[in-house]
Write a structure and sequence with these properties.
- The complex is a heterodimer of chains A (221) and B (114).
- In chain A, 36% of the residues lie in helices and 20% in strands.
- By secondary structure, chain A is an alpha+beta fold.
- Chain A starts with a helix and ends with a strand.
- Chain A is elongated.
- Chain A has six helices and six strands.
- Chain B has two domains: 47 residues, Helix Hairpins, CATH 1.10.287.190; 44 residues, Transcription factor IIA (TFIIA), beta-barrel domain (TATA box binding Protein, subunit D, domain 2), CATH 2.30.18.10.
- Chain B is 32% helix and 35% strand.
- In chain B, strands 1-2-3 form a three-stranded antiparallel β-sheet, with no helix packed on it.
- Classes of the chains: A alpha+beta (221), B alpha+beta (114).
- The interface between A and B is large, with 87 and 83 residues.
């Protein structure tokens, strides 16, 4: 089950980023940031420990979280400090472009051919900052939720009801709650007996993810 | 995967899953550090809505049965929300999983095309 989750998530990530890459290329923008996004996305997902992810196995195709997705280029000497995990294997090693080869791209290549740019031009204010100063800032930005508030608009009704439903229940443990996100084909009630037919669902129970194509539920109210 | 019909809309429901949350948080970080433009992030999230929906529909075959006590139900704007307690899940590989309480958020599979 968990392997299935990993494969599914891998192909979702691949396809989303491929679509995004086409967007970037159509607009003539540099799409190398998407390689960073892949690493950040996969690393965050791995940290949730919802299942076995293919990229966690340090497979030959994907250099994974052995270094910080953004600041990993800073050099191998810093990598153990930044990541807090054992030094990268050969598969995670970054290859620095040899200087003076006529191609003066200031970057490093990962072994899957992705170019990791050292710093994008629009980034400012971070020069010389220590990496440990950056993480807390990110947390604060997350709380402000500039993107999240936009993205969550479509779900405001569901979230309102979530709050209401939660408030009726004692001792809720917040975001760790077991949840099913799905579509429904049918919801039926006869007196106090409910039947519901769900489809295309993602389940999180006890911290693990499951997916189903079709789910049937029976409950008495 | 083929591109969907342009007028087809996709739920944002799956953004609240682990993989959706991981993407949202990563994009939030990238926006705050000016690695990516907010409108690009919005585009990426809408790709996610579509890809996640299509992949679930096209590649997942597993079935699941659920029994439990329905504690709370609500249908608001065509979204059903259930709180079910003392839940037993039966996966079609025979696995049984128990949960004290689970919340189900389900959107209509026949989405009105407006």
């Amino acid at each position: 089950m968990s392997n299935q989750i990993g494969d599914l998530y891998q192909s979702v990530i691949d396809e989303v980023l491929e679509n995004a890459r086409q967007d970037f290329q159509e607009r003539g923008e540099d799409d190398s940031v998407l390689n960073l996004l892949r690493n950040a996305w996969q690393q965050r997902l791995s940290e949730m420990r919802v299942g076995v992810m293919p990229w966690d196995n340090a497979g030959p195709t994907i250099p994974t979280s052995g270094y910080d997705p953004i600041y990993g280029y800073r050099g191998t000497a810093e990598m153990p400090q930044l990541s807090g995990i054992p030094p990268a294997t050969g598969q995670n090693t970054l290859h620095t472009l040899p200087p003076g080869n006529g191609l003066s791209i200031p970057g490093t290549y990962t072994n899957n051919g992705g170019l990791v740019l050292p710093r994008l031009p629009q980034t400012d204010g971070l020069n010389g900052d220590e990496s440990e100063e950056i993480k807390p800032d990110v947390k604060k930005e997350d709380d402000s939720g500039d993107l999240g508030s936009d993205l969550g608009e479509g779900l405001s009704d569901a979230e309102e009801s979530e709050d209401e439903l939660n408030s009726e229940n004692d001792g809720e443990e917040g975001g760790d709650q077991d949840v099913i996100l799905s579509l429904y084909d049918k919801v039926q009630r006869v007196r106090n007996r409910w039947k519901y037919v769900l489809k295309d669902g993602i389940v999180n129970i006890g911290g693990k993810d499951y997916v189903f194509s079709r789910g049937t539920g029976e409950s008495e109210w | 995967m083929s591109a969907p019909a342009n007028n087809q809309l996709y739920y944002e429901l799956y953004r609240r899953s682990s993989i959706g949350t991981a993407l949202t948080e990563a994009l939030d970080q990238f926006i705050s550090e000016s690695y990516i433009e907010p409108q690009s992030a919005v585009r990426i999230m809408s790709h996610f809505d579509r890809v996640m929906t299509d992949q679930l529909r096209e590649t997942v075959k597993a079935r699941m049965q659920l029994k439990g006590h329905l504690r709370t139900y609500r249908c608001c704007d065509d979204v059903w929300t259930f709180i079910v307690t003392d839940v037993v899940f039966k996966m079609d590989d025979g696995d049984m999983v128990n949960a004290d309480k689970i919340k189900i958020v389900a959107c209509n599979s026949r989405r009105p095309q407006e």
